[in-house]
Amino acid sequence: MKHSPIVIRRTAESDWQELREQRLEMLEDTPDAFGERLEVALDHPETEWRMRAARGSSASSIGLVALSGTTWVGTMGVYVPQFETEALLVGVYVTPRFRGAKAGVADALLEASENWARHRGSTLALHVHEDNGRARAYYAKRGFHETGQRIPYLLDVSQSELVMVKSLTA
Questions:
Q1: 5-34, pLDDT tens digit by residue?
Q2: Distance between CA atoms of 117 and 108, rounded to whole angstroms?
Q3: Please, is 27 exposed, middle or buried when counting C-beta atoms within 10 Å of its C-beta (0-12, 13-18, 19+)?
Q4: Which helix H or strand E contains 54, and what residues bound it?
Q5: Whole-angstrom Cα distance, residue 170 to residue 160?
Q6: Which of 64, 99, 141, 150 has the most CB within a 10 Å radius?
Q7: Does pTM top 0.85 for this prediction?
């Protein structure tokens, strides 16, 4: 199946309905990869979704969407937490039929995220569930390394997320 070329752009508040649908898909597809449960997300009001979509144009965060034609096929966000200088990668998701190196969606989103983060600090960090070997391998191939730091997994503190970082300097 041939797909339209992938276009990466920032989200805008007007994208709130598409963002909601993508978020619900990602929570259903990979329930342990994100710090939110589907049943909670289903109860969010429109104002919450509008606020999340508007992050695409904030000075301290960026929300990116990957589009194939007009279809949302992936998302990725980056933000700089208050009082921090290290950017944090969040909300990484690619629709199943667009996964893999051949489709290039994750790589295109990551490249755009790194370009944004590079102007805000020298490293990009992320938290990945300890059992998510596929994601850990993907990030390792793209220059991230595990720091040895573990943080409690938000939805089950008996589990951990591993901190991975990548230098954004040459």
A1: 899 999 999 999 999 999 999 999 998 888
A2: 14
A3: buried
A4: helix 46-54
A5: 31
A6: 64
A7: yes
Half-sphere exposure of 62 (CA within 13 A, CB side): 22
Asked whether the CA dihedral 154, 123, 150, 64 is positive or negative, the reply is positive
Cβ count near 68 (within 10 Å): 18
Instruction: Give the integer Cα–Cα distance in Å for 144 and 140.
Output: 5
Q: Give the tens place of pLDDT for each residue, 49-98.
A: 999 999 887 888 999 999 999 999 999 999 988 667 789 999 999 999 99
Strand partners, 66: 8, 74
Which pLDDT belongs to residue 170?
67
CATH code for the domain defined by 6-167? 3.40.630.30
Report whether 49 contacts 63 (CB < 8 A): no
